[in-house]
User: Fold this.
Amino acid sequence: MLAEGALALLALSIVAMLPIADTKGLAAAAIFTKGAGSLLGGSPAAIAYVGLVFIALALAVMMLVVRLGRLTINEIGGEKIPLLGNKYISAILFLAVTFVLASPTFGGTWLYIWVLFEVRTSSWQDLRL
Assistant:
């Protein structure tokens, strides 16, 4: 947890050092990659390296989320419904539910939930001095 906190502070520092004009129209991953790349010298190789590291971290987090979801389904229903005790069935069930929540074709209710946690850029830009 200490390493995650240190990484969060590093990411916040990297993003905070960029001027607002350089971040207009960019996604969060692109802002982080651009900021960390400029911290490492700003060369295209540095930006590509930071992009690869960001992708590796994103994949690791996604694997962790799927594993925790699978374990949660195993713990909740594994004893009552033996089929949910199978790690492959529970992982597929978790991914299917996640897909339905995130897919705009099947309802996309995650989009409605996510805006509750999203910070609008105009709100923090107005607070800057």
Observations:
- The longest helix spans residues 44-77.
- The chain has a mean pLDDT of 77.
- Residues 100 and 106 are 6 Å apart (CA to CA).
- The helical segments are 2-16, 20-23, 28-39, 44-77, 87-102, 109-114, 121-127.
